[in-house]
UniProtKB/TrEMBL annotation:
Domain of life: Bacteria
Gene transcribed to yield this protein: nth
Gene3D superfamilies documented for this protein: Helix-hairpin-Helix base-excision DNA repair enzymes (C-terminal), Hypothetical protein, domain 2
Designated name of the protein: Endonuclease III
Source organism of this protein record: Streptomyces humidus
Pfam families according to UniProt: EndIII_4Fe-2S, HHH, HhH-GPD
Chain's role: DNA repair enzyme that has both DNA N-glycosylase activity and AP-lyase activity. The DNA N-glycosylase activity releases various damaged pyrimidines from DNA by cleaving the N-glycosidic bond, leaving an AP (apurinic/apyrimidinic) site. The AP-lyase activity cleaves the phosphodiester bond 3' to the AP site by a beta-elimination, leaving a 3'-terminal unsaturated sugar and a product with a terminal 5'-phosphate.
Binding site for [4Fe-4S] cluster: C237, C244, C247, C253
Ranges annotated as biased composition (Low complexity): 1-13, 21-45
CDD domains tied to this protein: ENDO3c
InterPro entries the record matches: DNA_glycosylase, Endonuclease-III-like_CS2, Endonuclease3_FeS-loop_motif, Endouclease-III_FeS-bd_BS, HhH-GPD_domain, HhH_base_excis_C, HhH_motif, Nth
């Protein structure tokens, strides 16, 4: 997909073999490519394994051009900060965690410091993240385990990470993929929602989703695949009202039409969640393109 095509995030551009039934206009007022009635996928008809793999990989390629800067949206400087931030992100937003962790890490910069911390003081710092008492127990317990079992270092193996308090497979893969460069699929709520909408799998359990989706892609792509899907879920393919009419992968989506299909109305549903502006609505060209017409990171992205 070219930079010009990436500019049309607000347009669901159909492939040459896709049937089209409705049309809209892009942000410049020009006629947009028509929207596919079935999003280019025959709903209700069986899809061969080969066709599924090709469609899944094409979706990932499209998202890679729209979100070339995709990355963990938690701020961290080392594996310890990442594992703590990921544990704290449960039941809250990454933005809230990023607003909270600077004070936490300034006071307790190492596992040894946090392991010896007064729980009441930690609770006060973590209060804005919600469930602060349980999270305090987890991060202090996690820090103690790092000190006592791993010499104060975050382990780089899945089987060790999941033994730490508050760390499940999702958190472990975030850490492995982004702190150690070891491929992993992060099955969070966004990932689960999108891969089921795209009919990559019918599984509902995270570990089974991880296995099913992982089989569609080379292992080397797993970490960035997770970022692409999660970015898309946060910005366009929302849980309650997906912005179908502003979705760049609509031609490949069996669930096209579950959300708003009118291009202009769909653009108003786009969300921006980085840099202190949660939920800010943006026009696609400003949201995704730099001055040269190339996809660009949102404000605040590293």
């Amino acid at each position: 997909m070219s930079a010009k095509k990436a500019a049309a995030v607000g347009k669901a551009t159909a492939g040459k073999d896709d049937e089209t039934t409705t049309a809209g206009k892009d942000a410049t007022g020009k006629a947009a490519a028509k929207k596919p009635a079935g999003a280019g996928v025959a709903v209700g008809k069986p899809e061969s394994r080969t066709a599924l793999v090709r469609r899944a990989r094409r979706i990932n390629r499209e998202l890679a051009e729209i979100y070339p800067y995709a990355h963990p949206e938690l701020d961290f400087e080392n594996p310890f900060q990442l594992v703590i931030a990921t544990v704290l992100s449960a039941q809250t937003t990454d933005l809230r965690v990023n607003q909270t962790t600077p004070a936490l890490f300034a006071e307790y910069p190492t596992p040894e410091d946090l392991a010896a911390a007064d729980p009441e003081k930690v609770e006060e710092i973590l209060r804005p993240t919600g469930f602060f008492r349980a999270k305090t127990r987890s991060v202090i317990g996690l820090s103690k385990a790092l000190v006592e079992e791993f010499g104060g270092e975050v382990p780089g193996r899945l089987e060790d990470l999941v033994k730490l308090p508050g760390v499940g497979r999702k958190t472990a893969f975030v850490v492995l993929g982004n702190a150690f460069g070891r491929p992993g699929i992060t099955v969070d709520t966004h990932f689960q929602r999108l891969v089921r909408r795209w009919r990559w799998t019918d599984e509902t359990e995270p570990d089974k989703i991880e296995t099913a989706v992982g089989a569609l892609f080379p292992k080397s792509e797993w970490t960035m695949l997770s970022h692409h899907v999660i970015f898309h879920g946060r910005r366009i393919c929302h849980a309650r009202k997906p912005a179908c009419g502003a979705c760049p992968v609509a031609p490949l989506c069996p669930a096209y039409g579950e959300g708003e299909t009118d291009p202009e109305k769909a653009k108003k549903l786009l969300k921006y969640e980085k840099g202190g502006f949660p939920g800010q609505r943006l026009n696609p060209p400003q949201a995704y393109l730099d001055a040269g017409g190339r996809p660009a990171p949102p404000l605040g992205a590293g």
